Amino acid sequence: MPSVFAYLTSEVDWCEGNFEHSEVIAEYYNTISNVSFFLLFPILLYLNHQYVQHRPLRKAIKQPASLTAGIFSTYYHLTLSYVGQLLDELSILWTLALTYTDLGGTAQFVCLVGIATIVCTLMSFIKPDFNAYLLNSISLHLLYLICQELKKCSNPRVHRIAAFMVMWWVLAISCWLGDKWFCGFWQRINFCYLHSFWHVLISIALLYCCPLFIYFDSRYEIPSFEPELEYWPSDSWPIALPYLALRTPYKRC
Ligand SMILES: CCCCCCCC/C=C\CCCCCCCC(=O)N[C@@H](CO)[C@H](O)/C=C/CCCCCCCCCCCCC
Ligand SMILES: [Ca+2]
Ligand SMILES: [Zn+2]
Q: In terms of DSSP H, where are the helices of 102-221?
């Protein structure tokens, strides 16, 4: 029986051909496209440094999560090993669980998230493919939570960033599903890179999602500041990255 660390022991294989561009890297483009997760971490940290300074480390921990997800995802696509696949899924699952427990719910809600996380962790060992669908459907619930917050918020900047986030997420998920469902077609036209596009597109969606989440969070948790969503390097640039700025409200006397 091969070791769980051995190459090609994963139950899930992606459309890109294995060992086509390297003898060491199983899925070449799916591996190198993880660079987007490594870039995401310093970008989020740099842009949202004010938030990181004012919130305890535990709350800001979702940002380093992109780094862990990147490391495990690189290892997974490089080896397509069973352990790689588990680490890839579990790192995403536990980051999402941490995000949920930080949403400020009741003890009952935290307990429910805990149970669901344990069930999904066990599922990763038994039905990893099904679990990947489950992880993606959590995005739908995140989207629902964002919509609830948007209903209470009239700031057009916030709505614009949410619209861009949804656009990138739809593109990302289409690539993820396209790679899984229509692999035969992509192989016929010799274009098996959709999963690597997913890596890049979901990173871009997170570039919009994170400032949005921390904007809502800071409205409740750091009331001494006025949160503003701004763009780097400037509002007028055609391509600009959103970030959270914390302004001190003007005091009359
Ligand atoms: C500070 C606010 C945080 C908001 C939520 C942030 C949650 C971030 C959680 C983890 C980072 C995600 C990184 C994705 C890594 C993907 C690696 C990968 O490609 N894995 C596949 C196998 O190679 C696997 O099949 C994928 C499974 C599904 C992953 C689903 C990730 C959902 C991330 C949530 C994105 C929200 C975007 C907008 C929502 C409308
Ligand atoms: Ca493959
Ligand atoms: Zn991947």
A: 107-126, 128-151, 156-181, 183-188, 194-221
The CATH number that applies at residue 145 is 1.20.1070
Domain that holds residue 50: 28-247
- pLDDT above 60: residue 253: no
Q: Helix crossing, 35-47 with 194-221: angle to 10°?
A: 20
pLDDT in tens, 97-113: 888 887 767 888 889 88
Residue 229 lies inside a defined structural domain of this protein: yes
State if residue 88 touches ligand 1 by the CB under 6 angstroms criterion. yes
13 domain residue, yes or no: no
228 is in an annotated binding site: no
Q: Which residues, 6 or more positions from 177, have their beta carbon under 8 angstroms from its beta carbon? A: none
Q: Is residue 151 part of a domain?
A: yes
Say which residues have a Cβ less than 8 Å from residue 244's Cβ, sequence separation at least 6: 47, 48, 50, 51, 211, 214, 215, 218, 227, 228, 229, 230
Tell me the CA–centroid distance for residue 75 and ligand 2, in Å: 14
**Number of domains making up the chain:** 1
Confirm whether 20 is domain-assigned.
no
Atom of ligand 1 minimally distant from the CA of 139: 39
DSSP assignment, residue 249? P
Going by C-alpha positions, the residue among 218, 240, 205, 165 that lies closest to residue 50 is: 218
192 against 238, higher pLDDT: 192
Q: What is the pTM of this model?
A: 0.93
ipTM (interface pTM): 0.93
CA distance 16 to 1: 26
- What's the rounded Cα separation, in Å, for the pair 33 and 36? 6
